[in-house]
């Protein structure tokens, strides 16, 4: 990976996206703060999975954006984007050149 570039990693469940991200975060300098933002798996599960493949995540800060069981009602949904934000209306700007 090239420094100061953004990358999108995609794939189905179990394809290794989280493990790849954890490899990257655990390779950071010990004095450099790192943050893992999770949307699905609980922190304890991520830590257990990391340990099982030999990754030390003690210097990784975790932020869970998983809604609790009381969040959902019949009228609510869960989306990390604001209304109107989609790839179709280009609220974002690509940070790469073709």
Distance between the termini: 16 Å
Content-based structural category: alpha+beta
Low-confidence stretches: none
The neighbouring-strand order within the major sheet is: 1-2
Number of strands: 2
* Fraction of helical residues: 10-25%
Q: Characterize the main sheet.
A: 2 strands, parallel
Shape: globular
H/E element sequence: HEHE
How is the topology of this model organized?
Elements: H1 17-26, E1 34-38, H2 43-52, E2 60-64
Parallel strand pairs: 1-2
Your description of this structure?
This protein is of the alpha+beta class and 98 residues long. 20% of the residues lie in helices and 10% in strands. The protein contains 2 helices and 2 strands. The protein has helices spanning 17-26, 43-52; strands spanning 34-38, 60-64. A two-stranded parallel ribbon has the order 1-2. The radius of gyration is 16 Å and the shape is globular. The two termini are 16 Å apart. The model has no long low-confidence stretch (mean pLDDT 80).
List key phrases describing it:
2 strands; alpha+beta; 98 residues; 2 helices; single chain
Quickly describe the structure.
The chain is an alpha+beta fold and 98 residues long. Helix content is 20%, strand content 10%.
């Amino acid at each position: 990976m090239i420094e100061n570039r953004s990358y999108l990693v995609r794939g189905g469940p179990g394809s290794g996206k989280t493990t790849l991200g954890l490899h990257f975060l655990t390779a950071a300098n010990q004095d450099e703060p790192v943050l893992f933002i999770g949307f699905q798996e609980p922190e304890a599960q991520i830590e257990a999975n990391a340990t099982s493949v030999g990754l030390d995540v003690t210097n990784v800060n975790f932020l869970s954006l998983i809604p609790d069981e009381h969040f959902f009602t019949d009228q609510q949904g869960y989306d990390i984007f604001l209304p109107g934000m989609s790839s179709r209306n280009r609220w974002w700007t690509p940070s790469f050149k073709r």
